[in-house]
TrEMBL record:
Residues 279-306 form a coiled coil. Transmembrane segments: none annotated. GO terms for molecular function: alanine-tRNA ligase activity; aminoacyl-tRNA deacylase activity; ATP binding; metal ion binding; nucleic acid binding. GO terms for biological process: alanyl-tRNA aminoacylation. It comes from Fastidiosipila sanguinis. It is found in: Cytoplasm. This is Alanyl-transfer RNA synthetases family profile domain-containing protein. It holds the Pfam family tRNA_SAD. Its cofactor is Zn(2+). SMART domains: tRNA_SAD. Its main location: cytoplasm. Keywords: Coiled coil, Metal-binding, Zinc. It comes from the Bacteria.
Length: 423
């Protein structure tokens, strides 16, 4: 038989949709330094709490305390268990609320949780149980990791799943959501739980809190959940990736899923207007654009290569090439220098966000000698970079160049006995 919730001081266990509670502050402690997780300076213990403490992959609640005597409001930045401060057994740690401002002890307050934040956490957590239960029932995989983040939630499974297989699971999960089945939460003694069948069963010496989603999943859990599957609304899987010996799936549920769909809809509508084509033709339209961009990139590279070859053919001397045309990308210049066949030293300079990027080709004998251009750039202008004789790539900061770029290049050409080419 399940244990009566009234034995507990965690009010969120008894009433998961309760947003406020009038309780007493019974202990206040000033921290020796700011709490690194929340920035709080005080931790507060109350006679009861409607605030959920961080645990089971779910963040702790935030909200406010309202002093009922002075009507002053205090922000609650985080809620967490504190095993060290507890004088009870480790299975029953104290729950502390972390505040930026000091609050008096032995006063009545009204607790008010950030309900929007709590509700979306409950939607994600209940969804995790549905997805984990369905995957376990069909494939036998265990949920070995769960993280409820600020924007996305992830589950790690200990076996392989394809994106298509996970989408089939999500389809089943949404059908369960729309059936609006009740989610039953009960607490049992360790002896009672020993004879019960539930997922991820481990041996516990204390009370066991079970979350029962009919015909889907029964699992031990300390987190907050929605009252019925219909309160989740919608489930979307956004990514499936290989992780360790299994997969990590990323999902959105409830208000997060709705927001995601709205954003995707706005993007789609904008593309429909920009491309002047029906929504269902967008993929084909994007493919056509990709092909057109690829053709233009090839044309640009051919043009750049033609200009480069023409410039080098005009001079067989050692040359400094000033790149002014934006058709020469760093990626393209790397390719040019890696494939360069020249017995001359070639230095390309490009202005980039207040600095000068360079690409340098030298013959093997020059590169390893005191006549090396790279050695000169390092010694005279504190150039930083690396590579070999075929191609050295690096950067010169403008604050190491005393004169304007034109004067710098002229002086450099004189020092290196090089020809100047402008592209």
């Amino acid at each position: 038989m399940s244990k009566d919730f009234h034995d507990f001081k965690q009010l969120y266990d008894l009433e998961p949709y309760r947003k406020t509670a009038e309780v007493d502050v019974i202990y206040v402690e000033e921290l020796s330094e700011k709490d690194p997780q929340s920035g709080a300076r005080f931790k507060v213990l109350t006679s009861e709490t409607v605030f959920y403490p961080e645990g089971g992959g779910q963040p702790g609640d935030t909200g406010v305390f309202v002093d009922l005597k002075n009507n002053k409001t205090y922000k609650v930045l985080d809620t967490r268990y504190d095993f060290k401060a507890s004088d009870t057994e480790e299975e029953n740690p104290l729950i502390f609320h972390f505040l930026a401002e000091e609050i008096s002890s032995d006063i009545p307050i009204r607790q008010e949780i950030d309900w929007e934040r709590r509700f979306t956490h409950s939607q994600q957590h209940s969804t995790e149980h549905i997805l984990a239960g369905l995957v376990h029932n069909k494939y036998g995989y265990m949920n070995v990791g769960f993280h409820l983040g600020k924007e996305y939630t992830t589950i790690d499974f200990d076996g392989p799943l394809s994106y298509k297989e996970m989408q089939e699971i999500v389809d089943q999960a949404n059908n369960i959501v729309w059936q609006n089945n009740p989610i039953d939460i009960k607490v049992y003694t360790a002896d009672e739980a020993k004879n019960m069948d539930y997922r991820a069963k481990i041996e516990l010496n204390n009370l066991v809190r079970l979350i029962d989603i009919p015909n889907v999943d029964v699992c031990a859990c300390c987190g907050t959940h929605v009252k019925a599957t219909g309160d989740i609304g919608l489930i979307i899987c956004t990514n499936v990736e290989k992780y360790r010996n299994g997969v990590r799936i990323t999902f959105l549920a409830g208000t997060r899923a709705y927001k995601y769909v709205r954003e995707q809809q706005e993007i789609s509508n904008a593309l429909v207007q920009r491309l002047n084509m029906p929504y269902l033709d967008l993929e084909e339209g994007v493919l056509r654009l990709e092909n057109k961009v690829s053709e233009l990139e090839t044309l640009i590279e051919d043009t750049a290569k033609s200009l480069w070859d023409k410039a080098l053919n005009q001079s067989e001397q050692n040359s400094i090439i000033i790149i002014t045309e934006n058709i020469f990308s760093s990626k393209f210049l790397k390719l040019l220098f890696k494939n360069m066949e020249s017995n001359s030293s070639i230095l390309a300079l490009i202005e980039n966000q207040g600095n000068i990027n360079f690409f340098l080709h030298e013959t093997d004998d020059i590169y390893s000698s005191n006549e090396s251009w790279y050695k000169h750039l390092k010694e005279e202008y504190n150039a930083r970079g690396g590579g070999n004789a075929q191609m050295t790539q690096g950067q010169i900061q403008y604050n190491n160049v005393e004169a304007p770029l034109e004067n710098f290049v002229s002086q450099l050409a004189e020092d290196l006995s090089a020809n100047i080419i402008i592209l």
